[in-house]
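Preliminary data (for renewal application), calcium ion complex.
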Amino acid sequence: MKEPFHCPAIPALLAAFVVAAGSASAKDATRPNIVFILSDDQGWADLSTGATNFGHPSDFYETPNLARLAKEGMAFTSAYVQPNCAPTRAALLSGQYAPRSGNGVYNVGSLNRGGKNVPLIGPPQNEDVPAKSTTVAEAFRAAGYVTAHFGKYHVGGHEGGKSTLPEAAGFEFNFGGGKAGSPPGGYAARKLDGKWAFMQPLTPALDAFAAPYDEAYVRKHGVSPEMIGKPKHLTDALADAFESFLAKHESGAEADKPIYVHFWTHAVHGPIRPRADLAKTFEERKRAHPSKTGHDNAKYAALISDLDLTVGRILRALDDPDGDGDTSDSIASETLVVFASDNGGAGGATSNRPLRRAKGTFYEGGIRVPLIARWPGAIPKGTHSDTMIHAVDFYPTFLEIAGVEPPKSQVLDGVSFAKVLRSAGTVRNRKPVFYHFPGYLDNRADPSSTIIAELDGQRYKLIYHYASGAPEASEMYNLSKDIGETSNLLEGDVSKETRAIQRSLTGKLHAWLEQDTDGWHPVYPKDRKTGKPVPPAHL
Ligand SMILES: [Ca+2]
Ligand SMILES: [Ca+2]
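Predicted structure:
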């Protein structure tokens, strides 16, 4: 289980000092707990608050706990991640863009998910965060934090085998994290030996919470009594596991150590098999109040609701870790809670309006997600920031907040937004956000590189397509004026001014792709006919 920390760059002395300091001062504001809740496939508009989406709340989904989190913290409107599951997780864990050697995860599965009739062939890629990478969890564990992973992992156990599973990637505790992108069902099931368990490949640690709902449970957690005796839903089991972990930690021998937690839910990814009582609630609502925001899948709404209830349980557990009703043991004010999603809402399950398209694409509906951060007393409450954030930014941000030294062996591609969190209104002119995707994802993505950058106060996105070989055939949008990406600025007659913007963005994109830095190995698609690599064409 407990792999040695394999980053030689953090001196043992420093780690020892940090541990000692932590013990001496117990928990203090300079070393907060960090609880990072990552929802799966929850879209930018899949919340009942408009705080994270410029006032586009869903009129159908119910997320009062996320709304509470936003009221008590800071909501972000321009948070970017990768367009699907594994690449975002790899970027969060490694702090690196896909082309860097500590990551290498560009797509779920492979880069050739476009069939055999497409003109280019995608290169090989990683499915796991390589074992040599120093994950953010390893950095925190080395600094004396107690680290735990809950839920979906997805970026270990493939080509890297056990050496890339959560237990080997810095997490002392692992509740349910394995190689799978989605569990075979949403519920626990009874095995041949009579024991209840979540279907493989989830972990025994999570199976401890697989027993069916009983009377005490439904009373305690406000579950409908009709669920008594029914199999436990995975989302609820994750909340059970968190409460149990926190209660044990706070009363245990290491209670003086802060915790670093990834609570990465399987909800609201398919299979869309929600808790029956919640599904019934939303079926009724659908009949009584049909959605005008394009949200009309009652079962999906029930998954979102369960996810939100789970967020509420996490917040309550922080308020009262031992669960005795007395909050004098609250650790809320010494805990940074972050909520985000790993990609845009999936087409067919939800609508990301006003954003274009959905999960899997490089349009805003695929990559722009809700983000909220709460740390009472440190993050000004009820605030908003439109600074651009990318998944690679979380690693350096968490390090800065906790005063943990960056591992010297790990190039971090992101930019910390710790100062933004501490002070509302802080202007952060983030360098551009980049994407490199040298393959295919069915009809959603083709080989392309993308830049989102601010020029003269306007935010632009440029998508270059490798198959065209023609920079002129790129797409370019002004996101400040056209968040729905309805007007491709490179179509029709293109003015000199627009061409100059394109040239500027293309230049920055090439400079990023062609940088000469440690471990940077962008891979390019090959031409199907000639077998030759297809690098980006210059304008
Ligand atoms: Ca996902
Ligand atoms: Ca208590």
